[in-house]
Amino acid sequence: MAQKSLVDAQYRYNLAKDTYFRYKKSFVDGAISPQEMQMKETDFKSAEAQYKVAKANLQRATEMQNYEYIKAPFDGVVTKYNLDTGANIVAGGSSTSTMLFEVSQIDKLRSRIDIPQSYIDRIKLNQKISFFVPETPEKTYVGTLSKLSKSFDNLKRTMKAEITVDNKDLGLFAGQYVKTVIPLKIKIKCFLLKTHHLLQVKTVQGF
To answer: Is 6 within a domain?
Structure first.
């Protein structure tokens, strides 16, 4: 509609413009009265104003049409729909406004775990950690320990840690429950004895 209005306004503008300059030349030669000249000048200015308005309306309509498409700042997957086709959408910022949908970037996922205080000195950043989904325990995924909160929970005495894993094949899903296996270097306190330091007994009474 805006495009058609602009075409019509441009045609009327070009016609009024040509007529105005033709009458202006005739007015100089004395063939046109001042009243006629003034009338054609008024028509020309009116057509020019309508043409500018039509151009502005088309630009505004084009800008509004751009809102028909929502572009995410990253590649991802739509993981949540909150509205159906034909539903009434309230402008953003209103107390009754609803999020249209949720987009998640799942080609790289993060898993958060709690590490007990007694184990925290046996792990380090960037170490490899394996985990699996309980429904498919035969398939193991490997991630990297990327973050430590550096603070312990007062009640559980655990520290929050974050594992980053590549998910380019999209085999994992956001919000999925997994079980983590963290390799620890356990230090066992023990002592060694030579065999001749041991006393061999044959019966319980003898011991």
So the answer is: yes
